[in-house]
Amino acid sequence: MQKKVKVKPNSKQQKIEEQADGSLTVHLKSPPVDGKANEELIKLLADKFDVPKSYVTIKSGLSSRQKLIEISTDI
């Protein structure tokens, strides 16, 4: 499954908001430095979709706020 994700780093609290079009807005506490925000994003999405972290991949937008995430559901 693929999801479009808009990331908002340096937020006061972590949360995931589902938008009307099916995309997600994710608020992260981590700053966008040295991949910390990407690591936190992967962990949060793995918890939300109840899959191991290795099943969550950032397909595009590694250094962008707009990302395309692939979540493997083959368990």
Automatic annotation (TrEMBL):
Task: Look up the domain of life of the source.
Answer: Bacteria
* Gene Ontology CC annotations of this record: cytoplasm
Identify the stretch(es) annotated as Disordered: 1-31
Q: Which Gene3D superfamilies match?
A: YggU-like
Cited Pfam families:
DUF167
Q: Which HAMAP family match?
A: UPF0235
Q: Which family does it belong to?
A: Belongs to the UPF0235 family.
Query: What protein is this chain from?
Result: UPF0235 protein NCWK1_3178
Q: Give the organism the record lists.
A: Nostoc cycadae WK-1
Q: What is the lineage of its organism?
A: Bacteria, Bacillati, Cyanobacteriota, Cyanophyceae, Nostocales
